[in-house]
């Protein structure tokens, strides 16, 4: 839970850590992990089936981070 003076964390697509749409970079920033880890998770999910669809849905619905 966020402290009183801290702004709430929001999920955005990254402008700096992006290869395709910035979804994995944004998720990595949100969770505080390396973007490679999130990308590997999406690749693994893609090989099992739902990864590509989940990425496209996130690309559509997760807003791009304002500069």
Task: Write structural notes for this entry.
The chain is an all-alpha fold and 67 residues long. The chain has a domain at 23-61. It is built from 3 helices and no strands. It has helices at residues 23-31, 35-48, 51-61. α1 crosses α2 and α2 (35-48) crosses α3. The longest helix has 14 residues, at 35-48. It is globular. The mean pLDDT is 85.
User: Could you tell me the mean pLDDT?
Assistant: 85
Helical content stands at: 40-55%
How would you classify the helix and strand content by structural class? Answer: mainly alpha
Q: Write down the overall geometry.
A: globular
Instruction: Determine the N-to-C terminus distance.
Output: 26 Å
Outline the biggest β-sheet: none
Low-confidence stretches: none
Radius of gyration: 13 Å
Note the beta-strand portion.
under 5%
Q: What's the β-strand tally?
A: 0
Question: What sequence of helices (H) and strands (E) makes up the elements?
Answer: HHH
Short description:
The chain is mostly helical.
Task: Supply the key terms.
single chain, 67 residues
SSE topology sketch:
Layout: H1 23-31, H2 35-48, H3 51-61
Helix pairs in contact: 1-2, 2-3
């Amino acid at each position: 839970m966020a402290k009183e003076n801290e702004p709430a964390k929001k999920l955005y697509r990254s402008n700096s850590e992006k290869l395709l749409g910035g979804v994995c970079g944004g998720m990595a920033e949100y969770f505080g992990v390396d973007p490679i880890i999130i990308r590997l998770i999406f690749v693994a999910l893609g090989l099992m089936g739902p990864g590509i669809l989940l990425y496209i849905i996130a690309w559509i619905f997760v807003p791009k981070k304002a500069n």
